[in-house]
Specification:
By secondary structure, the protein is mainly alpha-helical. The protein is elongated, with a radius of gyration of 14 Å. α1 packs across α4 (about 65-85) and α2 (about 30-45) packs across α4. The protein has helices spanning about 10-25, 30-45, 55-60, 65-85; strands at about 5, 50. The longest helix is centred in the last third of the chain and has 21 residues, at about 65-85. The structure holds zinc ion. Zinc ion binds next to α2.
Length: about 90
């Protein structure tokens, strides 16, 4: 069986960005800005590749999803500010 690890952080970033888009309509939703926000945010966060048992991984790193989300949100807001000042669209 082929194991396809996915970056768990990327998944959280995507979720958080989606909910930010819903809460703040001033954030540009064009594909360029979306891509830039994702890239900038992910560059400032450690990657966490997991294949299956996320609960086990979180315990190993001594992390809760809340803590991860909070960290992701901080980096997302920084990235959004940067993209806002220098948009590619
Ligand atoms: Zn844009």
């Amino acid at each position: 069986m082929e194991i396809k690890p996915e970056n768990y952080i990327e998944k959280i970033v995507r979720e958080e960005l989606d909910s930010l888009y819903k809460r703040d309509t001033t954030i540009c939703k064009c594909p360029n800005c979306y891509q830039d926000i994702m890239t900038l945010t992910l560059n400032n966060l450690p990657a966490m590749y997991v294949s299956s048992d996320i609960g086990h991984i979180m315990t190993m790193f001594n992390l809760s999803k809340d803590q991860l989300q909070a960290q992701v949100l901080v980096e997302l807001l920084k990235a959004i500010e940067k993209v806002r000042q220098n948009p590619r669209h």
